[in-house]
């Protein structure tokens, strides 16, 4: 006689062990929505609600999660729109997604529970985005249905909502890895034997040599410290040849001058800059002191390539440092129209591999690119753009990394913040979580890895 | 496509009633409706749409769950028979059903069900002038059926085309008379994207302020996207 299946709270607690400090976590409807109430103080991870908010715990009456349970924003939580949520889910920003499938197959295929409940109607909600976007997809379900049939199957009997997407299955009797190699039983509930679990599973199940008993300790999680003492410390792991996104229109606004000086002081070579300009210092100031910009890296022989929309000086007689380096054959250049640059970055950050844009169709900019007529209009295919590092200029950040900007500094910074493996922000002021309002946060902290305070006496001018 | 009126009223973009703000909507129109399955929907505009009596509508929205008692929601509009088709990621509450489920089952309502992020991205593309996007979402499932597939970075992607509509019905907390808008809480979810993706964009707001009454750093939907405003009460 097998043991008793676990109470669902225990399943959820075991699921919580898949979390880690600072993880970005998406919750599908059903059992996953019980997770927030099991987390200690709800903090230590970014919970993403597809209905438009980040960083929450219950209960409150102003916002509703997937299950329509009242929830409450934590200090540092923010409201956002569905298109940004889609980008967070799909763009490589979500570490773990929890779903409750109606069926999950050995190879990781799954049928979302709403599909089962609506008998053939496809009601994916955000589940498909979560499944295809998250780094790790955890299926949380009862092992068997009320009629005794297994929810874990060799092949799904209904059309799937995700093909090969589930990585781990946590049920009320076991934990299994799913994937191309089939199911592996790695943990069993107390009182159960591997044979008993195999007997009620409707799919071949390999028993791991390291089979363990499930535990239910919810981990204590803390948001990692993101505040670095200075620009050099925040950038000292930038390897040679890195791609770096940096804001920068012609004026001083929006540019992370202090981080730029840090990069210069580190002297790291072979950098590929993605930016609106490639530096206009010495040409835009016309007698005024020169503003710190890309030019300090170019002059220090650190730049191998620029991807930019304004790579040259507006004055032929006053070439920029980049122009001179390019003319000497020391740098490469990729010229991209400004809106295409913005869109490529947005797509890179939001997990859109490529897009058809009308900009530049029929011109030199379209050369070597796929052309396509859609609905009577000519488009060209452009690729999403990502970077290794991004240095951005905010006005204020809280210690979780939520950022607000000032004036036109907003231009490229928020979109660039979504595109890099490591995003570093320089701000005038660092505040505690909750001091930036959830309605005013422009860049949610989940995009930000490192924060540095721009010293109050720092000058943006050389 | 319906176009915005040539002469805006003296009160800027503020219209006296929902019916007036929906002028020009015709049978067969496609309509984006903001809100989240029964909450945060533009109720006054939905009532106005019912009052116009137009039929054969295609609604594009999150879904039609049963709203609070006494509230007129997307489901009520569908129940009235004016809607031919709904495009939605979660058309009805899977546990409680409702008019959308009933009419779909009786064959009177067509449903096109799309993953939420795909719908958001298609509308964003429509609003931003992008013709189509390659997304990883739904590869090797029915959501990719009949669509062009292409590998990028070793992963299969699905070509999804931009989506635009004739009208968008939005719900915001406040607008200035120019149409700059702010939302409250999760009211933000579909509104900013839908605001960019329709020929005529109508917003129902709780409050209208003079220009300058909304901090420029806090504006979420810029005035250029908004054609008509109506007060919610």
Mind explaining what this structure looks like?
The complex is a heterodimer of chains A (462) and B (233). Chain A has 462 residues and is α/β, with parallel strands linked by helices. Chain A has 2 domains: 8-213, Glutaconate Coenzyme A-transferase; 227-453, Glutaconate Coenzyme A-transferase (3-Layer(aba) Sandwich), CATH 3.40.1080.10. In chain A, 18% of the residues lie in helices and 28% in strands. Chain A contains 12 helices and 28 strands. Chain A has an 11-stranded mixed β-sheet. In chain A, strand 12 and strand 13 form a beta hairpin. The longest helix of chain A has 13 residues, at 338-350. The radius of gyration of chain A is 25 Å and the shape is elongated. The model of chain A is unreliable at 60-64 (pLDDT under 50). Chain B has 233 residues and is an alpha/beta fold. Chain B has one domain: Glutaconate Coenzyme A-transferase, CATH 3.40.1080. Chain B is 19% helix and 27% strand. Chain B is built from 6 helices and 11 strands. Chain B has helices spanning 18-21, 43-52, 74-79, 99-105, 116-128, 191-194; strands at 30-33, 57-60, 83-88, 110-113, 132-135, 149-152, 155-161, 165-176, 181-182, 198-209, 228-231. In chain B, the strands form 2 sheets. In chain B, strands 1, 2, 3, 4, 8, 9, 10 and 11 form an 8-stranded mixed β-sheet that branches. In chain B, strand 8 (165-176) and strand 9 form a beta hairpin. The longest helix of chain B has 13 residues, at 116-128. Chain B is globular and about 50 Å long. The two termini of chain B are 29 Å apart. Strand 20 (354-357) of chain A pairs antiparallel with strand 5 (132-135) of chain B, so a sheet runs across the interface.
Top keywords for this entry?
heterodimer; A: 462 residues; Glutaconate Coenzyme A-transferase; 2 domains; 11-stranded mixed sheet; 8-stranded parallel sheet; 18% helix; 28% strand; elongated; B: 233 residues; 8-stranded mixed sheet
């Amino acid at each position: 006689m097998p043991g008793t299946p676990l109470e669902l709270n225990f399943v959820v607690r075991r699921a919580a062990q898949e979390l880690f400090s600072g993880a970005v976590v998406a919750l599908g409807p059903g059992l996953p929505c019980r997770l927030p109430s099991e987390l200690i103080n709800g903090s230590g991870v970014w919970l993403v609600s597809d209905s438009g908010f980040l960083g929450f715990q219950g209960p409150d009456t102003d916002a509703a999660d997937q299950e329509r349970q009242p929830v409450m924003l934590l200090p540092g939580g923010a409201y956002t729109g569905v298109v940004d949520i889609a980008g967070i889910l799909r763009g490589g920003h979500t570490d773990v997604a929890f779903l409750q499938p109606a069926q999950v197959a050995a190879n990781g295929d799954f049928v979302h529970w709403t599909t089962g409940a609506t008998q053939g109607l496809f009601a994916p909600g955000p589940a498909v985005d979560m499944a295809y976007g998250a780094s790790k997809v955890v299926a949380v379900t009862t092992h068997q249905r009320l009629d005794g049939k297994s929810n874990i199957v060799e092949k799904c009997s209904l059309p799937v909502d995700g093909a090969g997407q589930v990585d781990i299955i946590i049920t009320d009797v076991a934990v299994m890895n799913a994937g191309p190699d089939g199911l592996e039983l790695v943990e069993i509930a107390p009182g159960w034997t591997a044979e008993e679990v195999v007997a009620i599973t409707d799919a071949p199940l390999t028993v791991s040599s390291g089979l363990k008993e499930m535990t239910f300790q919810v981990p204590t999680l803390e948001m990692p410290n993101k505040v670095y003492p200075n620009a050099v410390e925040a950038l000292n792991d930038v390897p040679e040849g890195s791609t770096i996104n940096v804001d920068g229109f012609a004026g001083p606004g929006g540019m992370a001058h202090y981080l730029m000086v840090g990069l210069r002081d580190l002297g790291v070579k072979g950098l590929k800059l993605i930016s609106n300009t490639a530096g206009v210092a010495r040409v835009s100031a016309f007698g005024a002191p020169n503003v710190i910009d890309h030019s300090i890296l170019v002059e220090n022989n650190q730049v191998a390539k620029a991807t930019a929309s304004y790579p040259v000086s507006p004055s032929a007689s006053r070439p920029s440092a980049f122009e001179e380096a390019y003319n000497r054959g020391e740098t490469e250049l990729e010229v991209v129209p400004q809106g295409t640059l913005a869109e490529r970055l947005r797509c890179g950050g939001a997990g859109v591999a490529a897009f058809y844009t009308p900009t530049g169709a029929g011109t030199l900019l379209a050369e070597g690119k796929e052309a396509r007529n859609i609905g009577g209009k000519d488009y060209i295919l452009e690729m999403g753009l990502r970077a290794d590092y991004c240095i951005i200029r905010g006005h204020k950040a809280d210690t979780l990394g939520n950022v607000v900007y000032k004036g036109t500094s907003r231009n490229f910074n928020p979109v660039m913040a979504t595109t890099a493996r490591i995003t570093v922000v320089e701000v005038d002021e660092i505040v505690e979580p909750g001091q930036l309002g959830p309605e005013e946060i422009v860049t949610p902290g989940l995009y930000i890895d490192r924060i540095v305070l721009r010293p109050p006496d720092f000058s943006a001018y050389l | 496509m319906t176009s915005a009126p040539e002469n805006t009223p003296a009160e800027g973009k503020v219209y006296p009633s929902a019916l007036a703000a929906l002028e020009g909507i015709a049978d067969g129109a496609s309509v984006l409706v903001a809100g989240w399955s029964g909450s945060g929907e533009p109720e006054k505009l939905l009532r106005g749409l019912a009052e116009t009596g137009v039929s054969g509508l295609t609604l594009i929205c999150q879904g039609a769950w049963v709203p609070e008692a006494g509230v007129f929601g997307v489901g009520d509009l569908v129940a009235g028979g004016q809607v031919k088709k709904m495009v939605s990621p979660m058309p009805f509450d899977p546990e409680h059903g409702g008019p959308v489920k009933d009419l779909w089952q009786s064959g009177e309502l067509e449903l096109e069900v799309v993953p939420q992020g795909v719908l958001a991205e298609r509308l964003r593309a429509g609003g931003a002038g992008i013709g189509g996007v390659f997304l990883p979402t739904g590869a090797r499932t029915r959501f990719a059926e009949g669509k062009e597939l292409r590998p990028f970075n070793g992963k299969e992607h699905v070509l999804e085309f931009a989506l635009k509509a004739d009208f968008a019905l939005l719900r915001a907390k406040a607008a200035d008379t120019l149409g700059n808008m702010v939302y409250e809480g999760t009211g933000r979810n579909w509104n900013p994207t839908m605001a960019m993706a329709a020929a005529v964009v109508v917003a129902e707001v709780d409050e209208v302020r003079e220009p300058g009454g909304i901090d420029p750093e806090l504006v979420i939907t810029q005035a250029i996207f908004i054609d008509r405003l109506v007060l919610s009460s």
